[in-house]
Design a protein that fits this description.
The complex is a heterodimer of chains A (559) and B (151).
Chain A lengths: L5 H22 L5 H9 L3 E3 L4 E5 L5 E2 L1 H14 L3 E4 L5 E6 L4 H9 L17 E2 L14 H11 L14 E4 L13 E8 L2 E8 L12 E7 L3 H15 L10 H8 L1 H18 L5 H10 L19 H5 L11 H8 L1 E3 L5 E6 L10 E3 H14 L4 E3 L5 E7 L3 H10 L14 E2 L14 H14 L1 H5 L4 E4 L13 E8 L2 E8 L11 E2 L6 H18 L6 H8 L2 H8 L1
Parallel strand pairs in A: 6-7, 7-8, 16-17, 17-18
Antiparallel strand pairs in A: 1-2, 2-5, 3-14, 4-5, 4-13, 8-9, 9-10, 11-12, 12-15, 14-15, 18-19, 19-20
Helix pairs in contact in A: 1-2, 1-4, 3-12, 5-9, 6-8, 7-8, 16-18
Chain B lengths: L13 E2 L11 E2 H6 L5 E4 L17 E6 L6 H11 L5 E6 L6 H6 L4 E4 L5 H8 L16 H5 L3
Parallel strand pairs in B: 2-3, 3-4, 4-5, 5-6
Antiparallel strand pairs in B: 1-6
The chains are: A alpha+beta (559), B alpha/beta (151).
The structure holds protoporphyrin IX containing FE and iron/sulfur cluster.
Chain lengths: 559, 151
């Protein structure tokens, strides 16, 4: 894991002092609320329906036990004893007082954390594949590149007042577990003839005009990575629209210019930037990469990487005859992911108990997870963009003990990537922009499917809910998406099908007229009926939808 | 001759240069490109700073206007001019606020004419915010990465 040196620490400390000073000037009336707003946003402080919300950065979703414990302490000391993990691998606190904000930032800085640029029209916290450094299918660990970019983008003097927020995701596998092409810039680290470089995608995003980012460069050499990113940003900063905030994201610029013209402008700027010399020395990348070396026992994986656990194999884990609850086997089958070392897996900790609030964790749960990370995962933890947590490096032999501890803490739901693993935005319970409540809907759907035992039968089905068109809940990218709309003052829900944020990325299509809350729950059930009745062997919901199209679903819903 | 626009030396609150300030107004980018003798020009957010590159030798003052502090195009304009070798005065004018100063300085601005005068102590603190920096920029400061690997 990356560890701050004196410079990184000093930068974060300077930021805490700067914010303290800004808050003081705001209180003294030297800053208007309008002037203060972008400053507090750049420190992750949002004003919501009932209180301030603080969004804390978890760079590329990686943290250690001590950091998780600090997050638990903050939830207890300054909030109501819980936090909310987000779709960009961050954590949010929903009940923060402005007067406490600087102290919270100071507490964070003691464990090498911060809230820098988690909001505002700047380059946001950079996300990455949550299985980075662990996945069996990984080509290159993307995190050193993400860390290099974290440093480059922090307090960037030119790009702090962009037309709109700017989100970057970095992955290092063919498989996309970070919704890479739905980011302003998506980067895939690739290997070509032994040489490592970066593929750049630009202009993706969700919101009211969802777009899939086109490829703009197939290979950027490693010693030009920052230079290329800088060129992408400069063209956007200069020409991104500023007349209408709904058209200000880079996706609109890329769309209006056309990918080819945007790329041409970037290449021109890039050629110029190369002559200016903005790239950090290549030794810096090597220095950073050394922090991400695998723990010693994992370095020599042997001839083959791991493969998915089978029921057969799970039966034979651990001491023969060891007492074990029936729930373990389902969990081990569903919630583990193949590791590069055949004796290990990554273990997913679901924050989606049936009927629970997606992504919420109590301080107590955070502490349990921290302890388990120390015992079973080399002191390392991840936040997933699906609002779950995971332990990246768990010995397969330790799984039964790990599961027992998780289950005891209410963290053992075996539902990764199932219909219970819902992504939902805060919605009307917290958000002033909402049309509808997303959280209660998510709770009712997961409860319903869990109670009927259908979750397991249906298998992989990604359901995503947003409370309004801003699409914080990624509904465009859901196998099933639900969008809250306002229908003459009443909450109404639009259903859509066929989206994906993965390597088979696609945008969901609306089925037809919307439903009320009960109606949309029934509609989700009908849609799964159609799937179950027509699926071919091994087909996921999404595959069936792609094969048979929208009509049969429409027929069932409205026919 | 286009009408004079721009700030006067009296309105400049902070200046990090020793030469005499230009004592006349600026012209628009369009006017500057059309006439051969202008030595001071004013860039608005929508202007392409690169249009000035052929005239950098004769320019002694470039003002970059920030009608709204949230419009960050002027930061790119400043860096572009410095990257092209412009050494004259680069003045940030308009909604120039305390918390923008350190970034503007890094982008190459060396004089500041805020439309509302700033508190001197707050400004001094703001200019000194970053003892170290992560990125290479127009101020040519050695970055943290440079320092880590200098030996
Ligand atoms: C105060 C109300 C809001 C809340 C509580 C909220 C919540 C969230 C959360 C939790 C995320 C994941 C963020 C992260 O971890 O960085 C997110 C992302 C997002 N938010 Fe919001 N948000 C709010 C307002 C807005 C507004 C005003 C917009 C747009 C006008 C917006 C658009 C988005 C989009 C589009 C994403 C992710 C997808 C993308 O990058 O395209 N949100 N929001
Ligand atoms: S999608 Fe809409 S309702 Fe949900 S959090 Fe975002 S802005 Fe609020």
């Amino acid at each position: 894991m990356y560890k701050y040196d004196q410079y990184d620490q000093a930068m974060v400390d300077a930021r805490v002092e700067e914010f303290r000073d800004q808050a003081r000037r705001r209180l003294e009336g030297k800053l208007t609320e309008d002037q203060f707003k972008p400053l507090r946003l750049m420190n992750g402080l949002y004003l919501q329906l009932h209180a301030y919300m603080l969004r804390v950065a978890i760079p590329y979703g990686t943290l250690n036990a001590r950091q998780m414990e600090a997050l638990a302490d903050i939830a207890e000391k300054y909030d109501r004893g819980y936090g909310h993990f987000t779709t960009r691998q961050n954590i949010q606190y929903n009940w923060i007082k402005l007067e406490d904000a600087a102290d919270i930032l100071a507490d964070l800085s003691k464990v090498e954390m911060h809230a820098i640029q988690t909001s505002g029209n700047c380059i946001r916290n950079i996300s990455a594949d949550h299985f980075a450094g662990a996945a069996a299918d990984e080509v290159v660990d993307p995190r050193p590149y993400a860390e290099l970019m974290r440093q480059w983008s922090s307090f960037h003097p030119e790009f702090t007042y962009l037309p709109r927020k700017f989100k970057i995701a970095v992955i290092g596998s063919e498989t996309d577990r970070a919704a890479m092409r739905l980011h302003d810039i998506g980067i895939r680290i690739v290997k070509r003839d032994g040489e490592v470089g970066a593929q750049f995608y630009a202009g993706g995003g969700m919101g009211r005009t969802p777009m899939i980012a086109p490829l703009i460069r197939d290979f950027v050499p490693l010693d030009q990575l920052i230079t290329y990113a800088e060129a992408c940003l400069r063209v956007y900063n200069r020409y991104g629209r500023r007349d209408n905030k709904y058209k200000a994201r880079i996706k609109i610029l890329v769309h209006e210019l056309g990918a080819a013209e945007y790329t041409r402008q970037v290449e021109e700027e890039f050629a110029h930037m190369l002559s200016v010399g903005v790239e950090p020395p290549l030794e810096e990348l090597a220095r950073i990469a050394a922090h991400f070396e695998l723990p010693e026992p994992l370095r020599r994986p042997g001839p083959r990487a791991g493969t998915p656990l089978t029921p057969e194999r799970i039966k034979n884990i651990g001491v023969p005859g060891q007492a074990r609850d029936g729930g373990f086997e389902a969990w081990a089958l569903n919630n583990t992911h193949p590791h590069r070392h055949p004796d290990y897996v990554s273990a997913v900790i679901s924050l989606k108990p049936a009927g629970g609030i997606p992504g919420d964790a109590t301080s107590e749960q955070m502490r349990v997870v921290a302890k388990l990370a120390r015992h079973y995962s080399f002191d390392e933890l991840r936040v997933m963009h699906t609002q779950n947590l995971l332990l990246p490096h768990v010995a397969i032999a330790d799984l039964p003990a790990l599961w027992q501890a998780l289950d005891a803490a209410g963290l053992g739901s075996p539902n990764m990537d199932t219909i219970e693993d819902i992504i939902a935005c805060p919605g009307l319970d917290y958000c002033s922009l909402a049309n509808a409540r997303s959280i209660p809907l998510a709770q009712r759907i997961s409860e319903r499917f869990a109670a009927s035992g259908r979750t397991e039968v249906v298998g992989e089905l990604k359901l995503k809910i947003s409370g309004c068109i801003n699409a914080c809940g990624h509904h465009h990218a859901g196998h099933i998406g639900i969008l809250g709309v306002d229908k003459k003052g009443k909450e109404n829900f639009q259903l859509s099908l066929g989206g994906s944020e993965a390597e088979d990325v696609s945008l969901a299509k609306i089925t037809g007229p919307g439903f009320d809350e009960d109606g949309v729950i029934a509609a989700v059930e009908k849609v799964t009926d159609v799937y179950l009745a027509t699926r071919a062997d091994g087909e996921r919901f999404l595959d069936t939808y792609r094969r048979i199209g929208m009509e049969p679903f429409k027929e069932a819903l409205y026919g | 001759m286009a009408k004079d626009i721009g700030t006067s030396p009296d309105e400049v609150q902070f200046r990090f240069r020793d030469d005499e300030p230009v004592d006349h107004g600026t012209v628009t980018v369009d006017a500057c490109c059309d006439q051969t003798n202008a030595t001071a020009v004013r860039i608005e957010p929508g202007d392409d700073a690169r249009l000035l590159l052929p005239f950098l030798d004769r320019l002694a003052l470039v003002e970059v206007n920030f009608p709204s502090f949230g419009d960050g195009r002027g930061y790119s304009a400043a860096r572009i001019l410095r990257e092209a070798g412009y050494t004259g005065e680069l003045r940030a004018v308009g909604q120039v606020l305390i918390d923008q100063l350190s970034h503007m300085r890094r982008c190459g601005f060396d004089s500041f004419a805020p439309d509302k005068r700033l508190d001197e102590d707050d400004a001094a603190r703001a200019f000194a915010t970053w003892v170290n920096v992560y990125q290479r920029a127009a101020d040519r400061r050695a970055t943290i990465a440079d320092k880590r690997h200098e030996a």
